[in-house]
Structure formats: C-alpha cells, structure tokens
Amino acid sequence: MTIVGWLQISLLFLFVAIAIKPLGVYMAQVFEGERNLATKLGGPFERGFYRLAGINPDKEQGWLSYTLAMLAFSLAGFVSLYAILRLQAYLPLNPQGFPAVPADLAFNTAVSFVTNTNWQNYAGEAVMSHFSQMAGLTVHNFLSAATGMALAMAVTRALARSKVSTLGNFWVDLTRATLYVLLPIAFTIALGFVAMGLPQTLDASATATTLEGAQQVISLGPVASQEAIKQLGTNGGGFFNANAAHPFENPTAWSNYLNIFSMLSLSAAIVYTFGRMVGNRRQGWALITAMAVLLIAGVAVTYWAEAAGNPILTSLGVDAAQGNMEGKEVRFGQAMTALYAAVTTGLSDGGVNGMHGSFTGLGGLVPMFLIQLGEVLPGGVGSGLYGMLVFALLSVFVAGLMVGRTPEFLGKKIEGREMKFAMLAVLILPLVILGFTAISVMLPFAVASIGTAGPHGLSEILYAYTSAAGNNGSAFGGLSGNTLWYNSTLGIAMLLGRFAYVIPVMAIAGSLAAKVKTPASAGTFPTDGPLFVGLLIGIILILGGLQFFPALALGPIVEHFAMLAGQTF
C-alpha cells in the first residue's frame, strides 16, 4: 500500500461526500413534486406521458396496488427484452449480422437486465447487435434503476406519513426518476465519457494495423451512452466482455474515477433524500455513516491483501514489492482496482475493472462477502436504501428486546408483523445462494463448468449465485456459465433476489404507513446517533457472518491460508 494509493481513494470518497447533499435535495424535490428548473422544462413531457398511458398522476396507490404495478411493468419489460434478443437477426442496426440469441441465454439476459442484475453469460461485442444494446439493454438500465428508486420512495413515504393507506403512485415515481434524475445526469456523464475517449458510434468496427503489420478488427458501437447509465443506475452490464477493464469502456485513470463516482453518487444521495423526506436529516446521515464504515473497511482489506502480494508468485521469483498484479490493469494498479471491486460489490453495480477471481484468497473474499451482506453499502440506486431500512428495523427490534420496550423507528411502532416480513426478506439471500450452490456442487455437469478445481472452484460457483441473488452481476471468473443449467438457475436466483425480497419489504411499508406517527419520548431509542450506527453495523455483520461463514470457510478462506503456506490446488 502507498500514500498515493490512499490519496486516490480518499479523494474519491471526498468527491462523493460533497455530491450527496445537493443530489439528495434535488431528488427530494423531484419525488415530492416541488417545482424547480428541471420539472418546469420537463413538465409538458411528463404530463404527455400520463395522458398517453391513461394515468391519473393524482391518484395514489396502496402497497399492494403499487407492488402489482411494479410486477406488471417488470413482466412487460422481460417479455419485450426477451423478444428483442430472440428476434435480433430480423431487427435493424445489426451491422455485424449477429443471429438470434439462444433461448436459455435470452431468458438469463432478459431477467438479468429487468432485475438490475446485469449478469452477462455472453461477450457483448460478439453476441449483441447495436439495436439489442441500445433498445434492449440500455433502456432497461434506465428502467430497472428507476424501478428501484420508485420502490425506495414508497418505503420512505410509509415512514414519513401517519395513518395513511397509500404510498404514492408507481407510474409517477417511475416517470420522474427516469425523466428528471437518470436521463439528464446520464446524458452529462456520457458527454464526459466521449471527451475521455469512449466510442459513441453506430459503426460495427474499425480495422487497425498492429506494430507487427497484421490487420486487427476492433469492435465499436454506442459505448459511452450505455456506460453512463450502466454506472449511474448501478447496473454494471458492460458493452464489451472485459467490462470496465476494456480500454474502450474505461481508457484512463480519469474515466475510472468517473466510473466509480457515478456508481456511488446517486446511491448515497438517495439516502440523504430519505432523511429529508422523513423530516430527520440526521437519520439519513446515520445510515450513510454505517454504509461508509463497512465499505471503507472492505476497500482497506482488499487493498491490503492485493498490495501484500501472493507468496506463491513470490516464490517463483516475482518481485513482492509489486504486490499481486495478476488480473489487474496496469493503468489502474492495486489501489483503484481494490476501490472499484469493493464499491461495485458494496453497491449492486457488478461492473469490474479487474478479474476478481485473480485476487488473493482474502482479496477475493471481500467482494463476495460485501454482496452477501445484502447489497446495502450503499447498494443499488433505491434498492440499497430499502435494504438498509430492513436492517434498521431489525436493529431497533433488537434494541427494544434489550431494554424491554416496544421498538420504534421514526415514530412508528415495530411489531411482530413487520418483523416476520423483515426476516422473510433477509432469509431470501441465504436460501437462494446456499441452496443453488449446494445443488450445483453435487451435479457433475454443473461442476464441469468450473475453471479451477478445489476451493477456488467452489468460490466460482458460490460467487455466481451470490452475485445473481444479490442482483449484483459481477463474476469471479473461470466459471463457464453459458449452459442450460446456469442460465436457468442463475435467472431464477435473480428473480427471487429482486422480487421475493421486495414484496415483503412493500408489505412492511404498507403496515407502517397505516400506523400513527408518534413523537419521540424520553424512553425512545435514538436512531440517528453513534450508538445506533454501531448496532446497525453489528446486525449487518452478524447476519452476514452467521449465514455465509461456513461456505466462505470452505472456499476463499481455505484458499487464503493455503496461499500463505505456498500451496496450490
């Protein structure tokens, strides 16, 4: 580790911290319907959308109606994207002449982008036409992120309001998130990416002459526009197979900085939006602090592990001072690769600028564990917020048990109904991740897809289902996932990780909205101070540790100690 590396990391977090309040205030204005320059300019378009769709923006929905609208919209998105991929050969903007995407891969990809997972069992430049990339994948990068933001606003209103039966209007929240937040910011970021050298063209490829005199065909396409919303919406699906390690997706240290900043900015700012909308900005900062502590710890451990190097490579004569550079781009180094890895997995982004499977045992464990904590550091845009609020409810419930009082959160009594739904939500991840992993390691045709035998092979499978169920989308590498088994089961894991989680969360929101919001008393446990932050961090770590530690002990932890002993598998 170096001072320069830590300075790079610190400056990035400083830039994000500066952006949190202005972005958070702006989003609060948008979702509360306040007038500002953006809503004045976009107002006619917004009202036009409602008229075309036959939507009454003044009619609010209860939690069930809101949830059903979200599910119907997601189903329509899945069907439309699946159709685009299957009919790709007959659709325009296919200069490469790519055939239709196979049925099982199309299912996996459609589920992946609708659920904001963006797991990719394909090489984009060799499978997807420009039309599929733009009208299919990029569009759903916007819509899946906007869906997560809408759901977060519904949960926020449940805690902000008192004794009501409605949580807002899904179609209004979806439209405003897309029109006023994601589109203008993504457009600005895309312009920045173009200035930094990312391609934005409808040409299929360019031919270059190498230094040896050979001809090389280089894939091109509308990269900058997809890259912008990929990061801003915490999607992570790359235009190219190498994702953000590809020089056309991430050419320089400056573009790498903008990638990471784009990932973190909205996800962190929407937590401030929550604090503002519930009338307690300190509550928003408390949640941000808990997220930041765990995320920075993840960065530190990953950076330390990778900078310390691999004793096995050192024994082969590799200079230990260089650390572990396997699977990393030299233009980024260990510091910015470790930062990218922790951020993309603490979020639900899934983009990568290095090969996680080439990290050391401990360095590879951290990204996997950050996903297993629930994608709440700060998680996806919107989805991270409502995931963290589930942990907050569990924390105040534990605090209430310790002092013998009925737990409260922001003036709402937390009772048995809310706890049942909260536990149902948090048990989805271990059930899906550990269940599918256990089945896969017992099936010869599933084991045949791993790239490395031993503990690392287990990690490849465990990471795949962790990434899918956590709606992350990053991969450990080495696993040949484009098979009928993995395309199908990973798709099911993505669906359960998104919808089986959010339905009980919305049920909690409906229950809380109907309750009377009572003022804090002398006996109320404060949830905006350091004691609550510490308790919240402890609950997150305990749940993650107890659920996944046995599986991690058989994979990356074993690999870490074997590496220290100089053993290979």
TrEMBL record:
Family matches, as HAMAP family: KdpA
Annotated signal sequence range: none
Main location (coarse class): membrane
Membrane topology annotation: Multi-pass membrane protein
GO molecular function: P-type potassium transmembrane transporter activity; potassium ion binding
Function, as annotated: Part of the high-affinity ATP-driven potassium transport (or Kdp) system, which catalyzes the hydrolysis of ATP coupled with the electrogenic transport of potassium into the cytoplasm. This subunit binds the extracellular potassium ions and delivers the ions to the membrane domain of KdpB through an intramembrane tunnel.
InterPro entries: KdpA
The gene coding this protein: kdpA
Subunit composition and interactions: The system is composed of three essential subunits: KdpA, KdpB and KdpC.
Listed GO CC annotations: plasma membrane
Protein name: Potassium-transporting ATPase potassium-binding subunit
Membrane-traversing stretches: 63-85, 134-156, 177-198, 257-274, 286-305, 385-403, 424-447, 484-510, 531-554
PANTHER family, alphabetized: POTASSIUM-TRANSPORTING ATPASE A CHAIN, POTASSIUM-TRANSPORTING ATPASE POTASSIUM-BINDING SUBUNIT
UniProt keywords, alphabetically: Cell membrane, Ion transport, Membrane, Potassium, Potassium transport, Transmembrane, Transmembrane helix, Transport
